[in-house]
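Reading is simple: the token line describes the chain's fold. The lines below illustrate.

. . .
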Amino acid sequence: MNHNPLISLNSFRGRLLEWVQQKKKSLITEREKLLQDIASAEEEFYAKQSTDKITINAQKSVFKQVQGLQEQLQDTREAIGAVEFEIADSDDFIMTLHRRLEALKDADLASSLVETIHFSTCPSCYAAILEQDESVVACHLYKTPLDAERAQDRVVGLFNDLSIQIKQSERLQDVRRDRLKNLQAKYATIEGQWKLKAKELSELRVLLTSKVREQIRELHRKLGYIDKSIEDTDEQLKLANRIGDLSARKASLDAERKDLDARIEALKRSQTTRLRTARSAI
């Protein structure tokens, strides 16, 4: 059974044309449906313009509230920083007072442990110093009267002053720490309010962009895709027609080839006849 490639090619071309035309018809139908959807969405969008105006006003109001809360957060944050600095500075001051108090205790202890110094010679001229009456409370070298009670009272006074300063400073620290806790609680409250308002503002912005507007964008994207698909089907139609032209050209070439084959065969027969005639004549 002979297989005719031309018939097969024409059959393929016919099926391809039918498929491409059907596809284009389907795309055109879908495009018309999309245009209707776009028209409906745009009508809904413009009908919601008054609602959007309300949304814009609400957004402005919430935005101002968010700004106000941000300013309060900034002020509270600065107040917290200032109190924290005061607490740290006062901690250093109290630590210094404690060190002074400890040094004073050490000095008093050293004074009680170390006895009065007696010189046998003068530290300046190295002259011998005569023995003095030990019952007299005076400087062994310069004979200046020594008031031990007054010195002790002075030490006790310094000790009491330092203790009072420490207690007062610690009470002030307690006040500062209470104020810091209150500021931190205030900051947490304002921050919570700010987060809620910021979320509300974000939701209003989403409403303002509108789901309908996003839907319109999506429909236009689909429309662009369908238009591109229709252009592709037009190219496929051109390709199918090109295949038809090639088929016709091939058929013409096949006919010319057959004609040439027939001529060649006729020439061969004529040449053979002439050769036979020539041989017979010889």
About this structure: The two ends are 48 Å apart (CA to CA).
